[in-house]
Each structure stands twice: as C-alpha cells, then as structure tokens.
Amino acid sequence: MNKTTRVTTRRISETYSEESTIGRVNLNAIAAELPPELEGQWIVKVVRSFGRFRGITRDEALRDMFQEAVGAAIKAGMDAERKGGNVEAYVKRAVRSRLADLQRREDYRDMRLVNDDTKIMAGGSRSDFKAALMMVSPRAKQIWRAWKRAGGLMAGFAAGLGTSKYLAETRYLPILVEEMREALAYVKFIRRG
Predict the structure, then answer these.
(1) pTM here?
(2) Residue 107 · residue 191 · CB < 8 Å
(3) What are the tens digits of pLDDT across the range 47-73?
C-alpha cells in the first residue's frame, strides 16, 4: 500500500454539543412507550451495542438507527401474527438483521480506500477480500487471476503466468500474498476502525 488516509470527520448525527438546537433524546423513554411485544428495551440495548461498535454513544446519534429497528420490529410483529409465529422471535431476528444491514451500508458508504493517487469508493456490496483486491497493484491482480483460473493448482498457476512452478511459487505468489495481506489489514482498519 502506498498511502493511507484516516477519515476523522464524523457524520452530523454523530456530533452533539450542549449548544445544539436538537434536544436531548432518551431512547429508554421512547422504548417505554412501545407495546411490550415489540421488546422496546431490548431494541435499545441492541442499538446501543451496534452504536458502540462504531464509536457512537449518544442517544441523539442513535435515534435514526433506533427508529429503523422499531420499524423492522413492527413489520416483524405483524408478520408473526399473520403467520401464527412467535412474535418475540420474529422481532428479534428482524431487528438484528436490519441493524446488521444498516451497519454494512454505513461501512461501505464511509469506507475510503486509497491506492496510489486513485480513491476508490466502495459503494457496492463487497466483502473485505474483494475490497482489498481492488487495492492491489495491476501485477498482483494479474497473479490473482492466474491463481484463480488454475484453481489453486501450482502447475496451472505457473502455466498461466508463463513460468516454471518454482518461480511461480517463490517469486510471483509472494507478491500477491504480501499485497493482499497489507490491503486486507487496511480494509479491516477502515471498516472496523
């Protein structure tokens, strides 16, 4: 990796000051007004847990996430009643799924990958591996394509590169391994950091 950048800007919803015109929010109080079958206090606990993972601790910044979770809970509760299932199980599964989806979307939206002077925005649904593969050099990508075509067999890998098995293993494969190791570490740092 040639350069790294650190994104220090937080979204507006994640910043709160005492002078803010947005009033304080208490998710526990909002959850207390929900019907008991929607598991309001449990939703607050899970939303705060997801928020802590992103470094967000204020209820004001978690309000949108909480509202998304409540919306998923309401829909799941109606589905459970219509299908005759366990409402609590439907609600908990739907809320976790919705929050995980929101987390992924936020990670993809916020992630900035830098390779040389070209910024790559990961806007689609990409795994850590695919995002890292976008960051490696063209030479490493060529090596990866040869490895993939060969199905991991060294003879096919060497033939795809037009070299001997010895050189494929000792010269070319280490290039891919080293660049991917560095790129994966960077992607994990950005997504979880």
Answers:
(1) 0.47
(2) yes
(3) 888 887 767 778 787 888 888 888 999
